[in-house]
Amino acid sequence: MLKKSFIALLLTLAVLIIGLNTWGALTLGHLTPDPGAVRQPGANRVVMVFGATGSVGDGLLKAAMQDPEVEQIYAVTRRLSPRLEAGQASGRVTVLLHEDFTRYQGMEDILARVNTVMWGLGTSSIGMDPELYRRIHVDFPTAFVSAWLAARTRGPMAFHYVTGMGTGENESAEWARDKGRAERLVAEMAEGTGLRSFGHRSAWIRPTAENAHWGIYLLERLLRPGHLVIRGTDLGRAMLEISARPGELANGTLIDNRDALEYAAAYRQHAGR
Ligand SMILES: NC(=O)c1ccc[n+]([C@@H]2O[C@H](COP(=O)([O-])OP(=O)(O)OC[C@H]3O[C@@H](n4cnc5c(N)ncnc54)[C@H](OP(=O)(O)O)[C@@H]3O)[C@@H](O)[C@H]2O)c1
């Protein structure tokens, strides 16, 4: 009896994974990096990372730290992480301890120099008060972009918001509508300025190697055929590559998981790794 239940569970999981991968392979991927794209020198000279203590942000920070074209990294955060501590100790990262993510007074001089923002700040909607969820995922990024645009209006500037797969203003889930609205509001604020904003509708973002274990690597293998997984570091590389190509993707472009994988591959090709 127990053996039969176990086999039934395995079969259900297999069908689910095959179904998900088939759906991903058939529907994801709308953008193709231009092999002849002109890259703008200095487009990623100064990078600012939000959410660096989290699973996604740790990968974004790692990608920025590994990029020789990134000269200066600022992390705006409530607390430190091992990578932030190491980055701070090596002089690679400047940590800006911050509490209220709706206010950026006193940061103007730094914001005036920032080229690329990687926004990995966010949290699960499960069990969260909808008002607080909206504050974190709509008010925080829009307040930041407003402050950034007040301090700097000249490109190159790119804002990369990790919203997630399923985001959309017409979706039934409240979290999806909130994040979709945030994507639109930020793109509207950026219109006509030197800023381009992007919503990254990523699927599963694999944590950095320092935070991974065998189960995570197994899941990565299972989801790879449908382009349903991206490493946090690769998402960061995709952001850097998109920022470096100012003539390619317009303000407000939505990046799905397969698109980001393509731009990460273009980054690696350019970087020779
Ligand atoms: N993980 C994935 O596979 C995945 C896939 C698609 C989209 N996303 C999206 O990416 C975002 C980050 O996900 P994650 O998995 O990295 O989450 P996580 O590990 O829980 O990290 C959340 C990050 O956001 C910060 N944060 C959360 N609430 C905050 C608040 N009220 N004020 C200031 N900072 C706050 C946290 O800072 P503290 O350390 O100070 O709490 C931390 O740096 C979420 O919006 C998520 O939906 C994730």
TrEMBL record:
SUPFAM superfamilies: NAD(P)-binding Rossmann-fold domains (SSF51735)
Top-level taxon of origin: Bacteria
PANTHER family: NAD(P)-BINDING DOMAIN-CONTAINING PROTEIN, OXIDOREDUCTASE HTATIP2
This protein's name: NAD(P)-binding domain-containing protein
Record organism: Parahaliea maris
